[in-house]
# Entry
Amino acid sequence: MYVSDCISVNEKGHLTIGGADTVELAEKYGTPAYVFDENEIRNNLREFKKSIDENYGGNGLVVYASKAFCCKEMCRICAQEGTGIDVVSGGELYTALSVGFPTDRIVFHGNNKTHDELVMAVTNNVGRIIVDNVTELESLNEVAASQGKTVGIMLRIKPGIDAHTHDFIRTGQIDSKFGFALETGEAMAAVKEALKMPNIKLRGLHCHIGSQIFDLDPFELAATVMLDLFKDIKDQTGVELEELNLGGGFGIKYLKTDRPRPFADYMKKVAETVNSYSAKLGLKTPFILIEPGRSVVGAAGLTLYTVGAVKNIPDVRTYVSIDGGMGDNPRYALYQSHYELVCANKASEKRTETVTVAGKCCESGDLIQEWTHIQPVEPGDIIAVLSTGAYNYSMASNYNRIPRLPAVMVKDGESRVIIKRETYEQVAECDI
Ligand code: LLP
# Structure
């Protein structure tokens, strides 16, 4: 009925997530607030793992892309589920390390890691550093040498595949700040360079072709492009690389009309392609890594807001103002992303109104959704915006010095705070 299986309506006509009444959650924890369903998150991780077990003999690793939603509890969940974690900054790495995440399962990304970040990664024995450019490759070799270590790396390759996604979130193109280009020979040169370095162990290659992708063909194509490079490397250097990281990007349901494919379909297709194409090229089948972010947490989360002013401008539109906005969800302002909205305390009523939901920031573009269908709303009502689990908390800002929202985790109807609401004191804490 809703965009996520963990969302429903109870006998009071209130929206629920993971069996918990969202109106009661709003009363208990205040609004605005993010709410997540732990079972949904764990199930998604398990589905990805199962898809590798069943289709690829378990010869791979699910690496949760923590940029989608990074906090200590999320790192603990991944550690317990036996997945890896992809971090893209010292801050994300710090969060994973702070809960004792097994460092051999940490994958460190980033197109411009600082020297300090490289030192932090090497000092903590991060399992795989995804090297983006030659400058980084050279610095990393030096950092590793200074600590007398050999570090495992993968090189980020731009396979040049257009995955038909939003321009702003497309990263697999030749015109991208990420990675080594294939066509120009840059990728092969970097491989040869890495193989010569005494403190670098080249474990394999990485690519990431975009985000919110529904079509399976681009993933399949990416796998073959990457295996062609494995073959060229073998021919030119005699070295057969062992690992292929295919990145993330699996689409989720923001609207009922979105049709994501089951994870198993994706892995089945990729496994078939990798198995048959490796055999054709005379290569061993590589260990596969996948990096789902949005598809793990996106539909497992929602945001609760309280309605303030409702402004009807005759013959123009109705603005419904809420107590959050672009500070906690910048995705409509950035990408015109669509969402399903529900009046949580009137969830069983019909959606008879068409409104624009606006935030409280001092900016006209601070909108959560325009011309959206919702139940009749009035001041004091609770609005739930669904599928906000990915890239909302993680891209939040303190614009207008509005404190960041708390995150509440629900499990089997019980709830607990996993991120506390920021206070005004904390917002001003670094001020001198
Ligand atoms: N691996 C790499 C190297 C990535 O760059 C990304 C996302 C992922 C994995 C995870 O992709 P996912 O499974 O979540 O699609 N802020 C944008 C999304 C940016 C994605 C950046 N990279 C948004 O709000 O839609």
